[in-house]
Design a protein that fits this description.
- By secondary structure, the chain is of the alpha+beta class.
- Helices cover 23% and strands 20% of the residues.
- It has one domain: Deoxyribonuclease I, Chain A (4-Layer Sandwich).
- The strands form three sheets. It has a four-stranded mixed β-sheet with strand order 1-2-6-3, with helices on one face. Strands 4-5 form a two-stranded antiparallel sheet.
- Strand 4 and strand 5 (108-109) form a beta hairpin.
- InterPro entries: Endo/exonu/phosph_ase_sf, Swc5/CFDP1/2.
Length: 189
């Protein structure tokens, strides 16, 4: 599995910064093998809302609030790479979904996400907030996701070796002995 930790520019950041962040993220997501699992997590400073019909397959029916402009960038990148936001999939109380508190309004929002490939959604058991785990140094809450990762080892095919049998008595003949020595020196060189 490939784990990517990200911190996206805030809503107030310049558009160029946002575009550069998502271009860099796109570059990283593109080089990951298609067979590999992706666990993308972090503070994306985006509220994806709850429009699960418009973003079918990317967000579930358990989203929160209204979307903000940063959400379009995140959601379109998720659609492009067939990713799903796990925070919006499972039904749970809002207090276990919201991760960040707005400094002025004191309203809680869903800003931090754990995102995986859509095909790996069956591996997620739960994604939720752990309240009180890090209240002293940040205005965001710690997220936790419990998932099962099944690793399938691919066996490489070994090249078939050709075995030659030599009759030891034949080495007494000088020609056979020279041929065998030549053969060995070629193989060991």
């Amino acid at each position: 599995a490939t784990v990517i930790s990200a911190y996206a520019p805030t809503l107030a950041a310049e558009e160029e910064q946002k575009e550069q962040f998502y271009a860099d993220l796109d570059e990283i997501l593109t080089i990951i093998w298609k067979e590999d699992k992706i666990i993308l997590l972090g503070d994306f400073n985006a509220r994806v809302g709850q429009d699960s019909n418009m973003w079918r397959g990317t967000i579930g029916k358990e989203g929160l609030g209204k979307a903000n402009p940063n959400s379009i960038l995140l959601l379109s990148k998720c659609v492009e790479h067939d990713l799903v936001i796990t925070n919006t999939i499972l039904r749970q109380r809002d207090r276990y979904k919201t991760t960040g508190q707005h400094p002025r309004s004191k309203q809680w929002h869903l800003l931090d996400y754990i995102i995986i490939r859509a095909r790996d959604l069956k591996d997620i058991h739960i994604t939720h907030v752990m309240r009180g785990a890090d209240d002293y140094w940040t205005d965001h809450c710690l997220m936790r996701s419990i998932l099962s990762i099944r690793v399938v080892l691919k066996h490489r095919k070994q090249p078939k070796t050709v075995r030659r049998q030599y009759i030891i008595k034949s080495f007494q003949i000088p020609k056979h002995r020279e041929d065998f020595q030549t053969y060995l020196s070629e193989k060991l060189a």
